[in-house]
Amino acid sequence: MILVTGGAGFIGTNFVLDWIASVGEPVLNLDKLTYAGNLENLASLAGDARHRFVQGDIGDTALVGRLLAENEVRAVVNFAAESHVDRSIHGPAAFVETNVVGTFGLLEAVRAYWGALPAERKSAFRFLHVSTDEVYGSLDAQAPAFTEQHRYEPNSPYSASKAASDHLVRAYHHTYGLPVVTTNCSNNYGPFHFPEKLIPLMIVNALAGKPLPVYGDGQQVRDWLYVGDHCSAIRRVLEAGQLGETYNVGGWNEKPNLEIVRTVCALLDEKRPRVDGKSYAEQIAYVTDRPGHDRRYAIDARKIERELGWKPAETFDTGIRKTVEWYLDHADWVARVQSGAYREWLSTNYGERESA
Ligand code: NAD
Ligand code: DAU
């Protein structure tokens, strides 16, 4: 089986669901269930023996070591992290704790387990670290997109903590020979995205009649990738990535934030028109910019295409349409996230099972 960390978060959820549907190999899902972890996302797997959930911290080396050994894990996919840039500005400590110290604890557990494996299993083992394009810093408007050779220049506590984790992963390969691969991906969007991030926040605020807060002039550029494409890239890198290599993953979809917000509004105008007949774009409100806001990210994804044959399947037009439809169809999910009710899911669904 494989160990997935952070598998109750946005991308982890999509990865676990896609993995079980397409590969079918059992998944051990280790997640601390911070505010961003939502086990309800995985309710469709209740009773499925291919998914086992454990609530715990990646930094708990003893726990991780025990889980690896008991389950004869063949690969680790590390999604677990604090992921929201704005939260990292308000409270960086949790980012250092999980993204740096936690990744270190995880690596220590994996190193001990992997080091004791018999030769054949040792050479087949993989540690895939999921990282971000934000480690590369910000691009000028005309600069070429980030390649894997771009120097690290993280600007927020979040990206600095992710950069530190990438360096630790790299060092464990270089020093101990740990069989690692790292992916650096651009902005994801799609189902189960926590409504603190731009796209889901705009959808839920629009529908609730609230302002749509655009930071600064709204001309910051992000490179958007549908989450299902990120999942297929990770599967491909896990399968065929070269040890010690990093792979940039992106959708060739650079767009300014304001255009994203206007696109979301136009789709909502089409699918769920406002009762007063006006456009949701009327709700756009410019607010003070994010401190240290990176102006532009863009991923050059030619290496993963050339070496591993991976390409995104969705265009932005198809992906954003699916995403808006998902949120319209999952008003209950949104309501339970916003009320905090989703946090009761663990005791509701697992309380009795754990004591059985
Ligand atoms: P998320 O915040 O939605 O989910 C993170 C998950 O990790 C949550 O379920 C949370 O409970 C869990 N977690 C947090 N601390 C933990 C700990 N100490 N131990 C165990 N579990 C813990 O994040 P996401 O958007 O799904 O991102 C997943 C990964 O992908 C992160 O490493 C992030 O840096 C990276 N990434 C995200 C994006 C994006 O656009 N969302 C893009 C590129 C890379
Ligand atoms: O690039 C990959 C990264 O993308 C991931 O590593 C992060 O985990 C993920 O959160 C995301 O970071 P961003 O900061 O780019 O995402 P966010 O959705 O927070 O913001 C996207 C852009 O929209 C950014 O330029 C800030 C802006 N924004 C965001 C919010 C929440 C607004 O203008 N208004 C908002 O209310």
UniProtKB/TrEMBL annotation:
Alphabetically ordered keywords of this record: Lyase, NAD
Catalytic activity: dTDP-alpha-D-glucose = dTDP-4-dehydro-6-deoxy-alpha-D-glucose + H2O
EC supergroup of this enzyme: lyase
Single annotated GO MF: dTDP-glucose 4,6-dehydratase activity
Coiled-coil segments on the chain, per record: none
Cofactor dependency: NAD(+)
Domain NAD(P)-binding residues, every copy: 3-323
Lyase keyword on record: yes
Name by which UniProt lists this protein: dTDP-glucose 4,6-dehydratase
